[in-house]
Amino acid sequence: MSDLSAPGFPEEEVRRRARTGTAAAFPPPEEYGTVLFGADRDPHRCGGDPLDALRIVPPVFMPRRLARLIDLGREPDYRDVELTTVIGGFTSPLPVYVSALGSTRAASGDLGQALARQAGALGLPLVIGENVVPVEGYGRLGEAADRALLGRLRAYADALPDGRGGIAVQQSTEDADAEVWNLVYSDPAALPLLETGRLAFELKTGQGAKPGLGGMTVLDAGAAARLADRYGLDDVLGGGRVLRSSTPGTFTAEILRQQIRLMRNNYPRARVWVKLHPGRDVAEAARVAAEAGADAVTVDGAEGGTGWAPGAFPAQVGLPLAECLRRLAAAGPPPCLLVSGRMWEGGRAVKALALGARAVGLGRAALLAAAEDPEDGLTRLVECLALETRMLVSALGKYEPAALDRDDVWSPEFP
Question: What CATH class does 11-213+248-410 carry?
Answer without folding.
Answer: alpha beta
